Here is the input.
Amino acid sequence: MRIALSLLLIALPLAAAKKPTVAQLQVQVKRLTEERDDLKQRLAATEDLQQEAAGAKQARDLARAEADAARKEVDQLRAALKENQGGSDAILNELQEAKQEAEEAKVEAERLRAQNASLLFKANAVPGEGDLVQLSEEIQPARPINLTRATPHLSASGLFKARPKGVVVVQVLVSEKGDVLSARLLQGLPGDSADAKAAGEACVEAAKHLVFDPATSKDGKTRFKVWQGVGFYLD
Here is the structure.
């Protein structure tokens, strides 16, 4: 009995040392391949996690920098508000003044618009007897009757100085009856001497004594009031 047991114990290691079969080897290769592929996947996942961690760190650093910049900007705004707090009343007053000026400008614009509409209406309307009109191709201007007799009285300021010479133009308002209602200097003698000024005043005074055939329509049936120029030649 002891001899049989010894033989059995010797036979077991020999059986264990027997070479594996091809099927067993294939199973082992397959298992090792799967373990290798699993390790590769884990390694790739680890690399992805490392990249994500690096990106998260960069995003965190950027967020911190932006937060610091925003904090500085808020501090600057607070300082500016604190500095300008005393001038808030002045800003409100300026705002009220600006609003008032805007309202006044609006009212003035409406007034000018109405005035312009009235002027357009008058310009397009057919002028009647005695209306003030502008000289145009449709209007025959007023013609002075006594121009040669209405002469300006001139004198030199100095004893040996000659009287001023040149052309003076006076603008006169002629009524529909031919009377001069108003006169004003349109072009005086050159220079600003006392003689030139006196010559202009003398011509304006002489123009007030002119008598005209009034301005009329082309057919001569309607007489108008007009502003027109009269020239005086001083020699």
Remarks:
- The first strand starts at residue 132 and ends at 133.
- The mean pLDDT is 82.
- The two ends are 176 Å apart (CA to CA).
